[in-house]
Design a protein that fits this description.
The chain is α/β, with parallel strands linked by helices and 753 residues long. It has 20 helices and 20 strands. Strands 6, 11, 12, 13, 14, 15, 18 and 19 form an 8-stranded antiparallel beta sheet that branches. Strand 16 and strand 17 form a beta hairpin. It is globular.
């Protein structure tokens, strides 16, 4: 053991030392052999003339032209790559070293620069770098693997022939060239893509539709306090809704959110050809903000959006209701636990939220036969069945399944002063024309219009403090510069999500709650649940242009309920997933480079259809959110450690879901099924870590989402879910938040708070 560790440390030290020496030597070789790399750049250019020639030669190999198809040279690829690098000196430096490395390799093998050797020789050299890059990217296995990796790095450092620099550049080079090509006009014309970008809103109908106004009985009160009546942490599907209800009741509200406030007109880029490159505006500037660790070796991808509007900024607007039986899983199926509330308790709130959002959905003969009873029809008519859904519906009809248009927070007519959905299908990037009913353009403006709400973006809650009476007293938060602030409230509402909420409670330790605030049960963070997501993609003979229309245009709930013929309890839904079938996304999914890559993109683009599942994972106490003991975020706060492993019931359901997707593809006439894979965490639906119940020993909050331990502390997000059902949770989160806020307002009116 000692010898092995010593050898590993020695190799590491040698590699680090050699890297400095060899880099200086490599610079000397390059300066002597290829001084053109160091000629002054033209003003406004990232590359020298010689670098541009070399980059153009590499790009022509990665995306070749021929047979009437455009290549990198026809699409302005070099200019686009320069723009990609213009604001990133670190990437520019990697390019400089990597391009030098390619020239050094060519000189070593052929005695000439890369651009001077024959195209077949260029291709062989590029293939060799590709193969070496793949070997370098493989995770090491055991001591032998780790030693081989260190020896490889050592060889890169000492070889003086450019292989290390070329390998380091290869992956970003392919990524950037592919991105530049598939966002070009030449590529779009070649693929026959008409694209989602649009410059403005579609024409609005002349009249505003009428809507019912269910009376929920929330009192209107007017109180003047030196501190806020309510402090809300999080401004998404829960917090934004609660803010509106409380403010309209006359209460003063302060809302803290860890993310920024986005301006759809300037921050969303779906009107530009490069929308796929520019669209990820919700990623943080500092990657440390969203760090997390995993509590096991099982993969799990935690995705979320921080900002005013929360994850509704990027969601697809799928808004089905829970079914009646979802609230009584134990009574119906003998698994999990029953909720302390029923569907009937929530039905009027479902209606109220749907009418705030202008949800579109089918009715009459087109309605979903599995829907629970409704007091009102959907406020706006359903979207059409777009080509991808029509393709899958043919297969569903053969199998006797019911594919219908899902309810969507994408109004089909003008609603609330906003335009109808334009069917661009790029909802994930944010809706530039504010047709999508995200919380920031629906509930938040109405909350602020009362004059009672103050919204604080980029305010990261660090701790909820307690007063000597055991009541929540304040929220300590950090601004974007790391400065500490404190805001006081008569009531505190936590509305992060099922990860951030337990994280905050666990960080809020005190003598009264040494294991975390409101955690006398020990259940804060426990039963971390998600929806089981299996994604499938298939190629169909006919061109279906699946990118057209809404991102999810069909839903099947035939497998929703427990079936005694299955080896698992509960069930799942299947949706037709059209998001991510744009040119660059398809090219990246296919991967590779060269003529074979282009041929695959050409054959698949426009013929791809995607399916996804929403499977009900059963809550399990072994799955949990805790605090990482060592890793910190950008503000020095402990990051969440996530443990979510599919258990026996989940694994059986995942197997069934894979089989059902395959059946649908085959029945629909797919020419080729590409992938059908479970993607842990990728549902982005996280639930259950502060569960609802009547017994303080077995739950964190009561049926009004008030914590058992702290009488003025509430939770208004997916943490409180007892079970997850098999539907997207955003609507039910908003419904529970509306009901919770009404309960808070009632308690204020009774002078109980």
């Amino acid at each position: 053991m000692i010898l092995r560790d010593s050898l590993s440390q020695l190799l590491t030290a040698l590699a680090q030392r050699a890297g400095d020496l060899a880099y200086r030597g490599e610079r000397t070789v390059v300066e002597g052999a290829a001084p053109e790399h160091h000629q002054p750049q033209e003003e406004g250019r990232s590359f020298t003339k010689k670098e541009t020639r070399l980059l153009a030669a590499l790009a022509a190999l990665l995306i070749p032209s021929g047979d009437g198809a455009p290549g990198a040279g026809d699409a302005g690829v070099i200019e686009t790559v320069e723009r990609l690098l213009s604001a990133d000196p670190l990437r520019r430096a990697r390019y400089a070293r990597g391009l030098q490395g390619f020239d050094l390799l060519a000189r070593r093998r052929h005695g000439r620069r890369f651009v001077e050797i024959l195209p077949p020789q260029q291709s062989v050299l590029l293939t060799a770098v590709d193969e070496e890059a793949k070997r370098a990217a493989q995770p090491p296995v055991g001591l032998g693997g780790r030693l081989r990796r260190k020896l490889r790095h050592l060889r890169y450092s000492f070889d003086g022939h450019g292989i290390g620099a070329a390998v380091a550049l290869f992956e970003p080079l392919v990524r950037d060239v592919v991105a530049a090509f598939y966002t070009s006009e030449a590529a779009w014309q070649w693929l026959g893509y008409d694209g989602p970008p649009f410059a403005g809103a579609p024409p609005a109908p002349p009249t505003e539709p009428a809507k019912p106004s269910p009376s929920l009985g929330a009192p209107s009160i007017h109180l003047k306090k030196e501190v806020a009546d309510v402090v809300i942490v999080g401004c998404g599907a829960g917090g934004g809704v609660a803010a509106k209800v409380l403010a309209e009741a006359g209460l003063t509200v302060v809302v803290l959110d860890a993310g920024p406030r986005f301006n759809p007109a300037t921050d969303y880029h779906t009107h530009l050809r490069e929308f796929e490159l520019l669209g990820d505006v919700f990623s943080p500037d500092d990657e440390r903000r969203d760090r997390y660790t995993l509590g096991s070796r099982q993969p799990f991808t935690y995705t979320r959006v921080k900002g005013i509007g929360g994850s509704t900024l990027a969601y697809h607007g799928i808004t089905p209701r829970f079914h009646e039986t979802d609230f009584r899983a134990h009574s119906e199926d003998g698994v999990a636990d029953d909720w302390p509330i029923t569907y009937e308790d929530l039905e009027p709130y479902y209606t109220a939220v749907e009418y705030e959002l202008g949800v579109s959905g089918p009715s009459g003969l087109e309605a979903n036969p599995f829907d629970p009873p409704r007091s009102f029809n959907y406020p706006t008519a359903a979207h059409s069945l777009y080509p991808a859904a029509e393709t899958i519906k043919r297969g569903a009809d053969k199998l006797g399944l019911h594919l219908v248009v899902p309810p969507l927070a994408l109004p089909t007519r003008r609603w609330g002063g906003r335009p109808e959905c334009a069917g661009a299908g790029a909802c994930h990037f944010g809706c530039r024309i504010i047709a999508k009913s995200s919380i920031d353009v629906t509930f938040v403006p109405k909350a602020e219009a009362t004059g009672h709400v103050t919204i604080c973006p980029e305010a990261v809650a660090r701790e909820i403090t307690l007063g000597p009476d055991g009541r929540a007293r304040s929220v300590v938060y950090l601004d974007s510069a790391g400065r500490e602030h404190e805001v006081f409230g008569r009531v505190i509402v936590v509305a992060g999500n099922a990860v951030e909420t337990p994280r905050l409670l666990l960080m809020s330790r005190s003598n009264r709650f040494p294991s975390g605030l409101a955690n006398s049960s020990g259940l804060v963070g426990k039963r971390f649940t998600e929806h089981l997501a299996v994604f499938g993609y298939a190629v169909f003979p006919d061109r279906v242009a699946a990118w057209r229309g809404v991102p999810v245009s069909g839903i099947i709930q035939d497998f929703y309920a427990t079936d005694s013929r299955n080896s698992f309890a509960r069930g799942f839904a299947i949706v037709v997933e059209s998001s991510g079938l744009w040119p660059l996304s398809v090219a990246r999914r296919i991967g590779g480079w060269g003529a074979a890559h282009k041929a695959s993109v050409r054959s698949q683009f426009g013929h791809l259809v995607g399916l996804a599942t929403v499977g009900e994972q059963l809550p399990d106490p072994r799955n949990a959110v805790t605090l990482d003991p060592a890793l910190k975020d950008h503000l020095g706060l402990a990051v969440p450690r996530l443990l979510n492993e599919p258990r026996e019931n989940d694994l059986a359901m995942i197997s069934s879901m894979k089989g059902r997707l395959r059946e649908l593809f085959e029945a629909g006439g797919a020419a080729e099924i590409l992938t059908i894979d479970h993607a842990p965490g990728s549902s982005a639906h996280y639930l259950g870590t502060c569960r609802m119940g009547v017994d303080p020993r077995t739950s964190v909050v009561n049926q009004w989402c008030r914590t058992h331990d702290v009488p003025n502390l509430y939770i208004a997000d997916g943490s409180v879910f007892v079970t997850g059902a098999a539907v997207n949770p955003a609507l039910t989160i908003s419904v529970l938040a509306m009901r919770t806020a009404e309960g808070i307002a009632t308690r204020f009116a009774r002078h109980e708070l």
